[in-house]
C-alpha cells in the first residue's frame, strides 16, 4: 500500500478511538457503537461525508419512529424488530438510503437489548449517533483541493492528446499503421479517467467554492478524446491516400502546434473554413477508390471541426 492508504487507515483508527473515548467520557452506553458509526461516516470527500451524514440522520429519525410503534405494539421482541426492519428497509430502499439500514438498525437493537425505550436510553442513542457522525465529519475537515495534482494530470493528458494528433498526421502522410494511434488513445483515456476523478474530488472537497472549471475541463477533454476515437476509426478505413491527405495532415500538425489550454481555436476554425473552400476547388475523383478515400477525409474534417468547436465552447463559457 502507498503512503496515502496508510494515512487513511490511521485516520479511521484515530477518529473511531476518539469517538469511543468521548462516548465513555460522557457516560454513554454502547460507546463502541460510536466508533463504528464514525468509520461508516467517513467518505472520500467533504461534500460526500456531509451528504451521507444528512441522509443517515434523516433515516435515523424514521428508524426511531418506526421502532417506537413496533415496540409499542409487539413489545420488545424479535418479532417487533423484524417488523421494524421490514418497513425501515423498504423506506430506505425507496429513498436510496441503503447505507443507513445497517448502521441505524444497530442503534435500534439497543432498545431490544435493554427492553425499554425510555427517554434516557433514547437520548443515549441520539448522542451516540451525533457523536459518531460528527467525528466522521471532523475527520475529513483536513481534506483540501489538490490543484497541483490536477494541473499535472491535465498536462499529462494534454501531452498524450498531442501525441495522438501527431500519430494521426503520420498515418495520413505515410500510410502508417493505426496500431500506435489506437494504443495512444487507450493511454489517453486512462489519463483522462484519472483527471476526471481528481477534478470531481477537488470539487467535492471545496465546500464554499463552486468553480466548475476543473470538472468542465476534464469533461471537455473527454469529449475531444471521443472525437479522436472516431477519427482514428476513419483513418483505419483508408486503403489509399489521395493527394488531399497531405493537406489534412498539415491541418492536424497545426492543431498540435497551437494546442494550448487557453487557445480559443478561432484561427484554426478560420483555416478549416478556407480548407473546405480549397477542397471544393479540387478536381473530381477519377476512380471509385479515390472517391471513397476522399469521402473518408471529408468525414475526418467534419470530426476535426467538432474537435475544435468543443474547445471553443469551453473557453468561451469559462469566466
CATH top level label of the largest domain: Mainly Alpha
Distance between the termini: 40 Å
CATH architecture of the largest domain: Up-down Bundle
Strand portion: under 5%
Query: For the CA atoms, what is the radius of gyration?
Result: 30 Å
Order of helices and strands: HHHHHHHHHHHH
Fold-level CATH name of the largest domain: Four Helix Bundle (Hemerythrin (Met), subunit A)
Uncertain regions spanning at least 5 consecutive residues: none
CATH homologous superfamily label of the largest domain: Putative aromatic acid exporter, C-terminal domain
Helix fraction, binned, reads over 70%
Structural class computed from helices and strand pairing: mainly alpha
Note the overall shape: elongated
The count of strands amounts to 0
- Average pLDDT level: 83
Taken together, the total number of domains comes to 2
What is the count of DSSP helices, taking H or I runs of 4+ residues? 12
Largest pleated sheet: none
